[in-house]
Design goal:
This protein is an alpha+beta fold and 115 residues long. The chain has a domain of 74 residues: Histidine-containing Protein, Chain: A (2-Layer Sandwich), CATH 3.30.1340. The protein is 62% helix and 20% strand. It contains two helices and three strands, in the order αββαβ. Strands 1-2-3 form a three-stranded mixed sheet. The radius of gyration is 28 Å and the shape is elongated. Keywords: Periplasm, Repeat, Signal.
C-alpha cells in the first residue's frame, strides 16, 4: 500500500509539473493578446471619457453654443464640427477642448462660424 501511495504521489507531482510547464509555455501569447485587448479597451474608454468631458465643458460654458458642436475623439485627437456664432466662440471652443485632460490635439476644420 505504501508503494502505491508513493507511486500515486509521483504521478500527481509529474502531472502538476507538466501542467505548470505547459502553462508557462502557452501563457505568454495569451498574455500578450490580453494586454493588447486591455490597451484597446483603455483607449476606447479614454476616448469616450474625453468626448463626454469636452461636450459637457462646451455645454457648461455660457459663451459657447455647445449644443451645436459635434465632438468626436480618436486616440486623444478631438474633432469639433458644427456651427458657432463667431470666430471668437470657435476659438473659445478650441481652447476649452485643449484644456481637457487626455486631449492630444484638436481639429476644428469642421467648426464654422456663421458671422
Amino acid at each position: 500500500m505504501k508503494r502505491f501511495n508513493k507511486l500515486a504521489l509521483a504521478a500527481a507531482t509529474a502531472t502538476a509539473l507538466s501542467f505548470s510547464f505547459a502553462n508557462s509555455v502557452f501563457a505568454q501569447p495569451t498574455t500578450l493578446a490580453a494586454n493588447e485587448t486591455v490597451q484597446k479597451t483603455e483607449e476606447a474608454v479614454s476616448d469616450t471619457w474625453i468626448t463626454s468631458k469636452v461636450k459637457s465643458s462646451l455645454i457648461a460654458n455660457k459663451d459657447i453654443s455647445g449644443t451645436n458642436i459635434k465632438v468626436e475623439t480618436n486616440k486623444g485627437v478631438v474633432s469639433l464640427s458644427g456651427n458657432v456664432k463667431t470666430d471668437a466662440e470657435k476659438e473659445l471652443a478650441i481652447q476649452t477642448t485643449k484644456g481637457i485632460k487626455g486631449v492630444t490635439a484638436v481639429s476644428a476644420d469642421g467648426l464654422k462660424s456663421v458671422e
